[in-house]
Predict the 3D structure of the following.
Amino acid sequence: MSDLVGDARAWSPDAQEAVRLLAVSALVEGRDRAEVAALFKVSVRAVDNWWTRWQTGGRDALLSRPRGRRTGEHQVLSEAEQAAVRQAVLDHTPSGLGLSGQLWTRALIGELIFKLYRIRFTEPGVGKYLKRWGLTFQRPDKRALEQDAEAVRVWHEETWPAIRARAKAERGEVLFADQVGVRSDQVTGRTWGEQGRTPVVRRTGNRFSVNAMSAISTKGRMHFMVFTESFDAKVMCRFLDRLVGHFDRKVHLVVDRHPAHRSKTVRTWLADDEDQIELHFLPSYSPELNPDELVNADLKRSLPHTHRARNQAELATETRRFFHRRQRQPHIVRGYFGGPHVRYILNE
């Protein structure tokens, strides 16, 4: 025990813990408290304290505890001040509070704290508060400035429930549809590379594109059409004609407000087939409400990883291959309805 002799306050926590346990073991064996104190070069008062702790709390009472302040102890900002800053970050953009930019950074949150309470924080200091508040650095969703919040509310609370109820009463089928364009020069996703040197993706200088229209249901059904011409009313009518051919009951098709969807040509076509299909329009500037947007994103992520098309025909083939693959994977199609902004479709 010679290595433990000296001022106990200078010992490591592990060494202090070992001495406490050995000292109590000696007392249990019947040694005198003064003898134990002399053996371990500590005061009799310390030995008495360890014995009391052991009697009341057992071995755990003699173990070393982490040093330092408890979480939240002696915070520079009070709990009320912290709650105010946290809510400001969640409810507002920096520019909305007289700062610069649309996205919060640790530096901007530090500026906000100084503006409110005249207290300066380093970025790591702000980061500790953010961690304590349960906030993480995330990529934000984008919303069009033109989006009408009231129209979105009406869709959620009135329009969509009415569509669902009608389809159920008619024993019809509800699908969500959207169109997408795929370009040959499109590069999505990330790849590994040497730090400081941006990776290079070789692609053909011959630019071409194809378009597609797809429709999905909560049952995992998917219908699609790939085409090379521009999307217009005639293409929309062709897709509708193909779609109704797959059903022996009425189809309720939810789409965005693209001009082709609301064109006179499409309205005339629908009038002649009103017993077979009906269109319903999402609120303007609200693509996040359409689960078929997730199909489009899935398509654009998948194509570069499968094959780099050298011409339009190959790109069309790869696009069809993607849709055929998803048609055989109804669990993935149903998964598109699990996104945070489209989960409302599944809620009764």
User: Anything to note?
Assistant: The radius of gyration is 34 Å.
